[in-house]
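Researcher: Can you fold this with magnesium ion in place?
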Amino acid sequence: MTRIAVLGATGSIGTQALEVIRRLRRSGAELEIVALAAGRRVEELCRAASEFSVALVSLRGPEEAQKARKLLPPYVEVFHGQEGLEAIARHPQVDVVLNAVVGAAGLRATLAALSAGKRVALANKESLVIGGHLVMELVRDPDQLIPVDSEHSALWQAMRGVRREEVKKLWITASGGAFRDLPPEDLARVTPQEALSHPTWRMGPRITVDSATLVNKGFEVIEAHWLFGMSYERIGVLLHPQSLVHGLVELVDGNVIAVISEPDMRIPIQYALTYPRHRSPPARRLELAGKTLEFREIPWDKYPAFSVVVQAGKEGGTAPAAINAADEELVAAFLAGRIPFTAIAEGLAYILERHHNVPCPTLEEIETADMWARTESRRWMRDRFGPTIV
Ligand code: NDP
Ligand code: MG
């Protein structure tokens, strides 16, 4: 029996993971959920905890934990905060940690799980973006860290049986996000509602906005760099409006291995949980007849944030942590209607320019850079857009 902890269980990936596990269990798979963690959605988390009869639960803070204790039977152990996430991630009753927390808050749990020898199914790409060197030095066996992100799941599958020296380049695809077909001069006036309607994927709010700016694609380039040990020059991005081909491995002899599936996160989530086996599809079967696949060069000038993010990846050190934290703040301000969409890229460029990089940072140095970037980006927003920005 594989015992799973789902962190970020109330989110877009988390709830789809619960659905996948429910279905796998019905079809006889030897999986059980033993621990669940979330942030503020206490009732949702407690409902899932009761359904799966879990023994361990963690919430964002002491108040949420207090509320959960009242809703759960007394035998459930309730943790909270970063320590709670870490306690679950390294708990002896857990074999696999599916980390679907959003943002920098996911890093410590990834590190705790890996150091305790657990397998990690990683949706929280920020773990690799901000702490790639710390994460990768804890991976003892190559199958210990399995990507959930669809592009990386595709590359992971395409790379099976391929030698590193036979790979010329890795390619990931981008749908182009909500504003793919909008002229660049209209971007300053788009609303949060418009940014949240992604053409092909249904995801949490931050990653949906990050898809519209292409910050998400920049993060995915950094994620691929760490996961596959490839230099930035050997990771390319293609605009692919249909979101059917997720990742491609170009080999030195001219062959290209592509992984194609319906754009449905339940597929990579399931694969990360059943790896190395493929089981019956959790989503609609892909019907290729009648489908068109288009690939284009990204119109880079329309997506200035992408190159800022990749530049931070190339600089390494604490630069990606600063950029990630600034992006969390800028996206939250945009979603609250306080800054225009185009300010996200502007703010990121400002933070990268101002940041004093610390090479090969410790976890504490990463967290200091994160805090600096949050304070500095809030200050920048106030200076630029007025005192109503908090
Ligand atoms: P959501 O915003 O939908 O969900 C985030 C989850 O994290 C929620 O369960 C939330 O809890 C929880 N959470 C947030 N902060 C904390 C905290 N401090 N402590 C504990 N739990 C916390 O995000 P997504 O599901 O969209 O994304 C999750 C991760 O997966 C991100 O890193 C994203 O980049 C990645 N990803 C997502 C994809 C998608 O399709 N959604 C695709 C590929 C990658 P609560 O809501 O209860 O506050
Ligand atoms: Mg992705």
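Model: Folded with magnesium ion in place. The two ends are 48 Å apart (CA to CA).
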